[in-house]
Design a protein that fits this description.
Length: 154
């Protein structure tokens, strides 16, 4: 939620993440919105996300569908975020997360790896056909994110 500060973004999250009192308040403040539990609500949810994109709001999705803490690879992308961007004809900004082990004196007090957020260049629509655009941009972004992740291991 802070990667694009000062712009506030919207990000889908599990319902339990926004319904709990204390953490839920923070998640909602940072832009979290609950993902519906059933297909009827899900269709409305995607329509609302598309509307927000058309209005110029930033909607953040993990293309794999979920965040796995400290996972260092790239999993299979789901098409939801790409479908929305193709329908709304908006750019997609790839954001990759890598981790680096603490070095020097930080090793004495920090056990977990440090998260590094890499914000890529926007990928504009490539085709007037939404299905072609979806698949093309999905592949372009997969390659860009793989490049960032593979460079972080060198």
């Amino acid at each position: 939620g802070l990667a694009l500060f000062p712009r506030k973004l919207i990000f889908p999250t599990l319902r339990k993440n926004v319904e709990s009192f204390w953490p839920g308040s923070i998640v909602k403040f940072l832009g979290g919105v609950a993902i519906p539990d059933n297909m009827t609500e899900l269709k409305q949810f995607f329509a609302e996300m598309e509307y927000l994109l058309l209005k110029g709001r930033i909607v953040h999705f993990f293309p794999e569908g979920e965040l796995k803490p400290y996972y260092t690879g790239l999993r299979t992308f789901k098409k939801g975020a790409f479908h929305l961007a193709s329908q709304a004809r908006v750019p997609i900004v790839p954001i990759s997360i890598t981790f680096k082990q603490p070095k020097g004196i930080a090793k004495l007090y920090r056990r977990k790896p440090t998260m590094v957020v890499h914000v890529g260049q926007p990928v504009l629509p490539t085709s007037a056909d939404s299905q072609t655009d979806l698949h093309t941009r999905k592949e372009i972004i997969r390659m860009q994110m793989n490049d960032v992740i593979s460079k972080s291991f060198k």
